[in-house]
Amino acid sequence: QVQLVESGGGLVQAGGSLRLSCTASGRASLNYAMGWFRQAEGNEREFVAAINWSGHSTYYTDSVKGRFTCSRDNAGMYLTMNTLKPEDTAVYYCVSHRTGTSFTDIVQTPPSNLNWGHGTQVTVSS
Description:
The chain is mainly beta. The protein has one helix at about 105, and strands spanning about 5, 10-15, 20-25, 35-40, 45-50, 60, 70, 75-80, 90-95, 115, 120-125. The strands form 2 sheets. Strands 2, 4, 5, 6, 9, 10 and 11 form a 7-stranded mixed β-sheet that branches. Strands 1-3-8-7 form a 4-stranded antiparallel β-sheet, with no helix packed on it. A hairpin with a 6-residue loop joins strand 5 and strand 6.
């Protein structure tokens, strides 16, 4: 089974930046699409960003476009978050698709099609 571990969360002031990292236990994860979801306290889980197997193509939810950048290399997947806002406060989850290679496989899919990390907390103060 694929195991994903997120890191890099923390407390930052509004307007600041953070870089989240996700590492996978199996090299096979690097052959599939990956992405990020987040869940704020009291809110439903929402899609944030997706990246195809090679890192060539990405897609973002409207609220983070122009501020967040998803990337990947041989070591893992990353979410660079700039100009952070209080509404970005949430637990961020790394995901990999079980079979798909396109970022479109991440954007809208049943949770059972994804491998999930345990999350890392991001808190943005105002």
